[in-house]
Amino acid sequence: xxxxxxxxxxxxxxxxxxxxxxxxxxxxxxxxxxxxxxxxxxxxxxxxxxxxxxxxxxxxxxxxxxxxxxxxxxxxxxxxxxxxxxxxxxxxxxxxxxxxxxxxxxxxxxxxxxxxxxxxxxxxxxxxxxxxxxxxxxxxxxxxxxxxxxxxxxxxxxxxxxxxxxxxxxxxxxxxxxxxxxxxxxxxxxxxxxxxxxxxxxxxxxxxxxxxxxxxxxxxxxxxxxxxxxxxxxxxxxxxxxxxxxxxxxxxxxxxxxxxxxxxxxxxxxxxxxxxxxxxxxxxxxxxxxxxxxxxxxxxxxxxxxxxxxxxxxxxxxxxxxxxxxxxxxxxxxxxxxxxxxxxxxxxxxxxxxxxxxxxxxxxxxxxxxxxxxxxxxxxxxxxxxxxxxxxxxxxxxxxxxxxxxxxxxxxxxxxxxxx
Amino acid sequence: xxxxxxxxxxxxxxxxxxxxxxxxxxxxxxxxxxxxxxxxxxxxxxxxxxxxxxxxxxxxxxxxxxxxxxxxxxxxxxxxxxxxxxxxxxxxxxxxxxxxxxxxxxxxxxxxxxxxxxxxxxxxxxxxxxxxxxxxxxxxxxxxxxxxxxxxxxxxxxxxxxxxxxxxxxxxxxxxxxxxxxxxxxxxxxxxxxxxxxxxxxxxxxxxxxxxxxxxxxxxxxxxxxxxxxxxxxxxxxxxxxxxxxxxxxxxxxxxxxxxxxxxxxxxxxxxxxxxxxxxxxxxxxxxxxxxxxxxxxxxxxxxxxxxxxxxxxxxxxxx
Lengths: 420, 320
Description:
By secondary structure, chain A is an alpha/beta fold. Chain A has 2 domains: about 30-140 and about 310-355, Periplasmic binding protein-like II (D-Maltodextrin-Binding Protein, domain 2, 3-Layer(aba) Sandwich); about 145-310 and about 380-420, D-Maltodextrin-Binding Protein, domain 2. Chain A has 17 helices and 13 strands. Chain A has helices at about 1-25, 50-60, 75-90, 100-105, 115, 150-155, 170-185, 195-210, 210-220, 230-240, 255-265, 280-290, 325-335, 340-350, 365-375, 385-400, 405-420, and strands at about 35-40, 65-70, 95-100, 130, 135, 140, 145, 150, 185-190, 270, 295, 310-315, 315-320. In chain A, a hairpin with a 2-residue loop joins strand 4 (about 130) and strand 5 (about 135). The longest helix of chain A has 24 residues, at about 1-25. The model of chain A is unreliable at about 10-30 (pLDDT under 50). With about 325 residues, chain B is mostly helical. Chain B has one domain (about 85-320): MetI-like fold. Chain B has helices spanning about 5-10, 15-20, 20-30, 35-65, 85-90, 90-125, 130-135, 145-155, 160-165, 180-205, 210-220, 225-235, 235-255, 255-260, 275-285, 290-320. Residues about 1-30 of chain B have low confidence and may be disordered. The chains are: A alpha/beta (about 425), B mainly alpha (about 325). The interface between A and B is large, with 38 and 34 residues.
């Protein structure tokens, strides 16, 4: 009996060991110049096939002898797997990152690529999200932003002009009330099960509440969590919920993808969505029709603010510290961010890409409005926060909605987390 | 056993028969020396098991404990003493996850009583008991991710269950979005998904129950409650203990999938369990050493719960 137990342990351990081995073994690279391994979570998507093929072709022109292997990891496990690779000190040569906290927390494992990507600095935008301490660690592929999308059909049904959405909070709330009365649709579709709703909310309405100075110093790292305007953002988060403007059951609704579903089915007038990946203009166009999807910036909530589109570099590629030839790996990163592949990525996946020379005039009103707003756009407020503070903010936002934590208490905790 | 000369030869005819001259000679010297094959064989036979345990269990465990005494990020690899543990026990989220473990222990009797009661009904041949038996077992073959997704739909705020409650005139309950309810919802779903296995164990326990006792109780006019209280529970005490132990282990080790799919630890961290906390710290926060400290604490918790159960089992075993 005991023997059998021991044997089953042996078998289980062996299985576990070989299991681990196959997860990292096939994809880890010995760093020889003949082969580069790329980790990401995009290359397995159908919509990214042409993008990857074109990037490979571009790289093959420059380095015909080097084979490039893409390993598509599941996104929910991506940073766990990457963490294991970083801990082991070996893994892919080039890897995909989300801009902001995810890459900044891991720059120890990366090579600064300023020198290699200098020629792309003008053509691409969104570098800030891949920069830490003045050094660039990744090149942006897509831009990620948080536009407020609205359903023009619902506006028309309520007798409102969808070409001219309200520019003040009072007007916006009045429009919402009118639409809810006429159609029964709630003002916002909100999903906060993952704690993501508050991130979108903070960034989308931040520029309508914080003064430009406050906004810029927040992004630069000078965050005053006790300022009345910061409190107003979180108070608004609570008020919107208390006044019943959100879709019901926000804390048990996922942003990805239940909340997007609520908006797409016309049960909510507005949603703070994304620019790339999913929950973006292309998804909404498919469900509501390109003519019925509108985009607005935050209404003015406090006097003297100039609302802007919050956006940053979305995803990008970085070069691992342990790669044998950083220049070669950086060249692959340059191929992955060259114009032709990015054009494919825009066309197939609907991603708003980092390359400002990619033409987007054929995509409908929503994408045109987004691209037009990029020039005056600013980095999103939540992207400037560390993953630790983001995670805490997610939990506190759920508790604020429930009423188990006060806005003041939440801000106190967030301030402490942000300083540590 | 081995008193004469022949047994060694006849006991190991194969190696001797197969060996060539050199092997034969080596065999002889081995048998003559202090490290004879006779004496080595138990060690050789034990070695795989011991090596497996030491290499794949104890050594990684020690590495993990050692790793938990180092820092993360800027302090990567630097010994930081008990800093991680101090931070861990100051983190309300981790304390909340331990409190939830406490809830699991308290909910154990319910999780054992449900399959026990249903098995009793099946054993007493309620109408359609064959059908019930297979239906009860069915969820046990589903993966937690599938179960979680199904219940996400059923328990959504605008989902079918709340609609039924609405028809009955009861207010909607945010099953997964209310921090006072969510943990119980998840445990309830876990029990639903796993009680089939416990039910089967109970049914096999019933097979050992003397039917004459049941008949005697019935002919004496005992009610169902009295039959359960005085005949079934005492007769199945060993089975109940076994189910308690396995259910507890199941609740402590296999809730991750459900929590991941159903609540993501929310709302407000109210459904965190240590496992989920470890995963967040390692995967999302990029703090492997801190996660190791949490793992070490979880290991100790499991050890205490496990030892308590073993001693409980031993004590009741002696009574038999």
